[in-house]
Amino acid sequence: MRWCWPGLCLLLAGPGVWADQPSDPLAWLGRIATAGQRLTYSGTFTYQSGNRSETSRIVHIRDDTGEIERLETLDGSPREVIRSNGEVRCVLPSQKTVIIDQAGGRRPFPSRLADVWMNLSESYRIRRGEVTRVAGLEVQQIILEPKDDLRYGQILWADTQHGLLVKSRMVDERGQTIEQFAFSEVKVGGEVERSQLQSRFGGDAAGWRVINAKGSEIRLEDGQWNLRSALPGFNLTSAVRRPFGGQAGESVQMVYSDGLAAVSLFVEPLSEPPDKVSLGAQHAGAINLFKRVVGNHLVTALGEVPPRTVQRMAEAVEAVRR
To answer: Order of strands across the sheet with 137-146?
Structure first.
């Protein structure tokens, strides 16, 4: 399994300044979802989770050619993610490797919300918080409290002028921070040189390995795997089939989202005996995983959700009987 780090009347208002800021917190979520995709912006933000901290630089434009974004980590092992409309290129300079994949429905900060954000009130109690400042900008705080124990709480801070998300915090049931993203400086609008959107590591140069991880979309009704029982609020938003390598068959990735939290389910042929596979609960930072064997396939559920959520999702996976 390979994956790379690298997210309507309200939308008709467009990406510019809103003369009257909405009082409805759900309308604020609409602003946030739209701004992250339609605005031109650049800045530096920091990601924190536990003792881990990482700073990244992002440049994003939206013009007649579509949406282009370049994100580069500024500390630790160098990494670069360039997203051009539906294609994502993850550049790993230390390995001289480029991984090409398609964009998913939920994207990283600051485009945190999926296209189905309108349904968030089914799973969260949403309210406005205080107006404060982040990175020199006046921001409106939006608080999302989960209605069950299947997802974490979220606190969002959006620029009051443009709606751009400039800070987000994920919290557990005790209110403790799980992870946080925050701009330290950000510029919205203005001209952006195209050179700022190009890789500075020469990922197309000779000697680099290019891995095409793109898959083929599966019609949701044609999938060979499904959930025996659905989890409240989580809906299947995409399914992709990928070659597993050689004659080993195909792997399938299904994404279930409530509009903010998302769980990816990977179903792939077992490449070794079941007793050699590390099964059960695992975690990596803010991401929880659960693995189990179904027939001759390995099922992996992962996401920034509580451990019980990925376990229930993985244990519900079954082959479709036709």
So the answer is: 124-134, 137-146, 153-159, 165-171, 177-188, 41-49, 52-63, 66-73, 80-84, 87-92, 97-102, 209-212
The predicted-structure confidence for 117-137, as pLDDT tens digits, reads as follows 778 999 999 999 999 999 999
State both tokens at 204: 């197309």
- Cα separation of the two ends of the chain: 27
Domains of the chain: 11-209 (2.50.20.10), 215-319 (3.30.200.100)
Per residue in 193-217, pLDDT (tens digit) is: 888 888 888 756 678 888 888 888 8
Which are the contacts of 205, defined by CB distance < 8 A and separation ≥ 6?
A: none
- Distance of alpha carbon 51 from alpha carbon 28, whole angstroms: 31
Whole-prediction pTM: 0.86
Q: Nearest-CA neighbor of 192 among 63, 90, 64?
A: 63
User: How many CB atoms lie under 10 A from the CB of residue 186?
Assistant: 20
* Residue 159 near residue 149, CB atoms below 8 Å: no
